Amino acid sequence: MTDTPSTLTMTLDANAGGGGDVTIKLRPDLAPKHVERIVELANDGFYDGVVFHRVIPGFMAQGGDPTGTGMSGSDKPNLKAEFSKEPHVRGVCSMARTNQPDTANSQFFIVFDDAGFLDGQYTVWGEVTDGMDLIDALPKGEPPREPGKIVKMRAA
């Protein structure tokens, strides 16, 4: 992949601790196809207006489903897993999937605390470098009563 952006900016609405920007360092060295997909969807506006439909304290915040249910994704084909030894620690961004490894599409999650039991089973594609306090402030629930929303997400 050439000219891969190095960061992604996700602007959250006021339900996320007052709203603001979350900066994510992209990791094409770990998951080039997943980074390519996230960047493509983000720059196409796919994530704009999408909510965090599953936010579990001490575990993770999940979003990326345009229906807000956790049951859907983009119209693009699912991705083959790009598992790595990268640990799932606070701030790591990883792809959500079904119980089948090669089913990641558009949904992703951001880890609140160390979640080593996910290591080697989910594709790590980035890490939050700024704005983790906004992720921490997302309304909790499965789904939250008034979920936090991505206003805009773009690669830089």
Automatic annotation (TrEMBL):
Annotated GO biological processes are: protein folding
**Catalysed reaction, written as an equation:** [protein]-peptidylproline (omega=180) = [protein]-peptidylproline (omega=0)
Q: Which residues form the PPIase cyclophilin-type domain?
A: 9-140
Q: What InterPro entries does the annotation carry?
A: Cyclophilin-like_dom_sf, Cyclophilin-type_PPIase, Cyclophilin-type_PPIase_CS, Cyclophilin-type_PPIase_dom, Cyclophilin_A-like
Which UniProt keywords are given for this protein, alphabetically ordered? Isomerase, Rotamase
Q: Which domain of life is it from?
A: Bacteria
* Isomerase recorded as keyword: yes
Which GO-annotated molecular functions does the record name? peptidyl-prolyl cis-trans isomerase activity
A Pfam family in this protein? Pro_isomerase
Q: What is its EC number?
A: 5.2.1.8
As for family, the record states:
Belongs to the cyclophilin-type PPIase family.
**According to its UniProt entry, what is the function of this protein?**
PPIases accelerate the folding of proteins. It catalyzes the cis-trans isomerization of proline imidic peptide bonds in oligopeptides.
Q: Which PANTHER family match?
A: PEPTIDYL-PROLYL CIS-TRANS ISOMERASE-RELATED, PEPTIDYLPROLYL ISOMERASE DOMAIN AND WD REPEAT-CONTAINING PROTEIN 1
What is the designated name of this protein?
A: Peptidyl-prolyl cis-trans isomerase
